[in-house]
Amino acid sequence: MVSALVTGATSGIGLASALALADAGWWVLATGMESAEGANVARQLEQKSGGAFIAGDLTDPEIPSALIKSVVDTTGSLDLLVNNAGIHFAAGLDRLDLDEYDNLLAINLRAPVLMAKLALEVMLAQGSGVIINIASEAGLVAVPGQVAYNISKAGLIMLTRSLTADYAARGIRAVSICPGTTRTPLVEKAIASAPDPEAHERMLAASRPAHRLGRPEEIAAAVVFAASDVASYLNGTEIVIDGGYTVV
Ligand code: NAD
User: Fold this and answer.
1) Which of 74, 98, 192, 226 has its CA 20 to 30 A from that of 235?
2) Which residues 6+ apart lie within 8 Å of 220 measured at CB?
3) Cβ neighbours of 150 (radius 10 Å)
């Protein structure tokens, strides 16, 4: 049995990825903050290739190691980590609250670094493993008005590259997936908090050649591909799924 751990799997991209991996034959431990949604995810995973849900805050010092241990105790291995959990807020540097900055970096960057470090211990012992970091178009170009988020996603891309540089020769693959704006609760919250939500949504769609937002399933398909053995020579780089945002 191949086993995966997907963070932030109670909604949006993480939920779609957990379900798509289960459809592709992976046993999946889903995790996230919302227990009620998590129970629903666990039921869906059980009907596919098997899985479970554990609720937890990734900034809680106990949670990351408990999650990794749970996968290994249940399945005997950890073949895939998907670092997906993340948050977003809008602010340029002049309006940046440093406490908010620290909180965002703790969730979007420190937690993935810790999760990757813990997963790596298991994967290096196995001689194989894949770590997928859900970064963003905002890690590649400076999306205006969200400096903290941009920094966190650029850091995640460099985490991926560093994992490959240091551990590819020992059987580890790391991949960044860079979604463009995708319709999820995170984006719906950002739209709702804009001064003119409808205009903001139109702007988000119009700012990319595809003239629409992405769907979580369109990102999940890349997660399944990057995790699979057919992607065995894909290592350290980014898969950009952004409706063309970063090419214009
Ligand atoms: P979402 O808000 O739908 O889901 C976020 C998930 O992260 C939830 O499961 C939540 O429980 C979890 N989470 C948040 N804080 C946590 C914490 N402290 N501890 C544990 N779990 C926590 O978001 P989404 O839009 O699906 O985003 C998923 C990832 O994709 C994020 O990293 C986000 O930055 C990235 N991303 C999203 C978009 C987009 O447009 N939606 C674009 C590019 C990148």
Assistant:
1) 74
2) 13, 16, 17, 19, 20, 21
3) 19
Is the distance from the beta carbon of residue 84 to the nearest atom of ligand 1 less than 6 Å?
yes
Instruction: Kindly report the number of other CB atoms within 10 A of residue 64's CB atom.
Output: 23
Q: pLDDT by residue (tens digit) across 199-239? A: 999 999 999 999 999 999 999 999 999 999 999 999 999 99
Residue 225 has a pLDDT of 99
Q: What share of the chain has pLDDT > 70, as a percent?
A: 100
E-state strands within 39-111? 51-55, 80-83
Q: How far is the CA of 78 from the centre of ligand 1 (A)?
A: 22
What is the reported pLDDT for 58? Answer: 98
What CA–CA distance (Å, rounded) separates 219 from 84?
Answer: 11
Supply the pLDDT for residue 163: 99
Backbone angles phi, psi at 167, to 5 degrees: -130, 0
Cα separations (Å) of 233 from 85, 198, 217, 225? 26, 43, 24, 12
Q: Is 136 in the pocket of ligand 1 (CB under 6 A)?
A: yes
Contact 33, 10 (CB under 8 A): yes
Residue 66: partners with Cβ closer than 8 Å, 6 or more residues away: 54, 56
**pLDDT on residue 196:** 96
CA of 209 to the centre of ligand 1 (A): 24
Q: Which residues contact 239 (CB under 8 A, 6 or more apart)?
A: 175, 176, 177, 178, 222, 225, 226
What pTM does this model have?
0.99
Task: Find the 85 Cα to ligand 1 centroid distance in Å.
Answer: 4
Q: How far is CA 111 from the centre of its chain?
A: 11
